[in-house]
Amino acid sequence: MIIAVDGPAASGKGTLASGLARHYQLPHLDTGLLYRAVGQAVDGLEDDPEFEAAAIAAAQALDPSQLDNAEALTAARAGVMASKVAVIGPVREALFEFQRSFALQDGGAVLDGRDIGTRICPDADVKLFIRADSKARMERRARQLEQRGQRVDRYALYHQIEERDARDMANPHGGFYKADDAVLLDTTQLGIEAALQAAVAIVDEAL
Ligand code: C5P
């Protein structure tokens, strides 16, 4: 069984995807981590004429062990860098195979990201598209960062989320839209448990 979970930055898709993976005992891949790892590898090179080439090389050389450093990869800066490398077509191509193989492993998997239901797993058994309004997403991300002891400027964070959405939406290689056969789940008013229950109900219904 393949479950595809897509949605914008800080929509709660990662938390939902890992909850679904636990519930159905499936492995989970947060595909944003791949883009974050590539972004981190080329951080500081944005104004370099070789930026694209360096990002492509980093994507081609990506080793799964680079995904272990979750703490650094979840930082807001890594998210911004991720969205900058995500607009480079060959970077997406280089990361395609890793995601596809993960999805096709025996027994199935849960993947979350932006283009899972449209590009990586158009054949997924269940597709969810998560949305939540920008303020709710900012507040969730702020609390998450504060729990990790980081200081948060909510105004800056809100703009960062909007900026990332805009870049993701304009990405010509992205396909950041809801697949026709994806079920929309709006989590603006839902806590983690309620959102998970709603997602499980959608998956059960689809099976
Ligand atoms: O999901 P997360 O916020 O970790 O993703 C970071 C960035 O990586 C996104 O803003 C997006 O630009 C990019 N991304 C992508 N395709 C995916 C997952 C993430 O382009 N499947």
Description:
By secondary structure, this protein is an alpha/beta fold. It has 10 helices and 5 strands, in the order βαβαααααβαβααβα. It has a 5-stranded parallel β-sheet with strand order 2-3-1-4-5, sandwiched between helices. α1 (13-24) packs across α10 (192-206), α5 (76-85) runs parallel beside α9 (154-170) and α8 (134-147) packs across α9. The longest helix is centred in the C-terminal third of the chain and has 17 residues, at 154-170. It is globular. The termini are close together. The mean pLDDT is 94. Cytidine-5'-monophosphate binds at residues 9, 31-32, 35-36, 79, 82-83, 86, 113-115, 164, 168, 174. Residues 3-203 form the Cytidylate kinase domain.
Q: In which range does the helix fraction lie?
A: 40-55%
Task: Enumerate the distinct ligands.
Answer: cytidine-5'-monophosphate
Encode the helix/strand succession as letters: EHEHHHHHEHEHHEH
**Biggest sheet, strands in spatial order?**
2-3-1-4-5
Radius of gyration: 16 Å
Large-scale geometry = globular
Terminus-to-terminus distance: 9 Å
Number of strands: 5
Question: From the 3D coordinates, which CATH architecture would you assign?
Answer: 3-Layer(aba) Sandwich
Tally of contiguous helical segments: 10
Q: Which stretches are low in confidence, meaning pLDDT under 50 for 5 or more residues running?
A: none
State the CATH superfamily name.
P-loop containing nucleotide triphosphate hydrolases
Could you say which structural class the secondary elements and strand pairing correspond to?
alpha/beta
- Sheet-strand content, in percent, reads 5-15%
Keywords: ATP-binding, Cytoplasm, Kinase, Nucleotide-binding, Transferase
Enzyme class: transferase
Family: Belongs to the cytidylate kinase family. Type 1 subfamily.
Subcellular location: Cytoplasm
